[in-house]
Amino acid sequence: MNPAPEMNPQIRYKSKKLISFMKSLSGYTIEEKRVLLEDPKLFFRAIKESPKYLSWNSLVEDVSCANTTLKKYRRGELTIRGDIFLKLLSYLSKNQKQRLISKINLVNSNWGAIKGGKRGFAVIKEKYGENYLEMLRVKGQRASLNSPLFITKPMEITIPSSITMEIAELFGAYLGDGTLTKYFMRIAGDKRLDKYYFIYLSGLIKKNFGLSSTIKEISLSTNQLCLEIRSKRFVDYFRHVFQLKIGNKIRNSSKIPEFIIEDKELAKACLRGLMDTDGSFSRRSTYMCLAFTSHSPILLGQVHNLGLKFGYFSYKFKDQVGSNSSGRIKKYFSEVGSSNLRHIVRYHEHLKNNRFLYSEETLKYFPEYQNLMLPYYGPVV
Fold first, then answer.
1. pLDDT at 88 (0 to 100)
2. Backbone angles phi, psi at 232, to 5 degrees
3. Which of the four CATH numbers 1.10.3470, 2.115.10, 1.10.260, 1.25.40 does domain 20-109 have?
4. Which of 72, 234, 322, 323 would be 328's cystine partner, CB 3.0–4.6 Å?
């Protein structure tokens, strides 16, 4: 029999009841455990009041959970996975954790399915009788033995033999506005403005990894759109090659690897991905401004240094780096370019008509630009 694993020192408390509960969560069957909260709204309210809490999006990244799933946990629509509950628990004080013990129940992962299954079988038995129920059981046994539906295969993926400019650009897009969990990568955007950009990125993923990705709306009440790649091997590839960690990018000090910075073409491709997600081309007074914004001091410093090295950027202020020089912006577009229509349209319409378009105004120009060869490096002919 394997010995019980050592508990994380961060959850070693005086309360024997709490220690016993933590051991049950931290054992070898953690994926089979779920937590049923008496008052999930109160639990998440306490998390939001924690000094560790930054924002809802940061919480989603930190606990490596899909945004919609975490919201269902908050509303009490789902029991909480044991490993995710441990991460959420780290936001609470020692006293809050001890008070929580009496308000939780630990259940197996198939708890809901068992409850629903029992109710379903009771209805079938009452309506059709025991003989019909036995027939279903026999039929189900045959299916489980013979049906190919029960044979699961890992998703096929092509592992690239080298780091291409397209992969570097995709990595830059992730660093700009991406989320990484154990099983998927997600890049966020605006459903009005980033649809064509996500179609472009999904093409890069298909070409370099042989994987299909999904473009979907995160919420009907907002303009959030996301590109999602569900493949553990895809995630493992990025974690290994780019030394990425699961969870919050700022807390994990995610950055551009040296081998990208030292390669001029890979660095420019990565910069393009960063600018197309967290960058902007906008009006500042009477002139055009190119800017990159990040709350990560490490990443901001790297982008600033690349911008200075290649002659694109001229300033750094708080959480933003960029340039107001039309010459530098033209140099950036001719050498780095853009794959996002929202930036391309604003830049090119300014060159062509000396107009500063608002983001929403660019939408009517998309049909004119949608067949453009990407990345775009200069004026459209």
1. 87
2. -65, -35
3. 1.10.260
4. 323
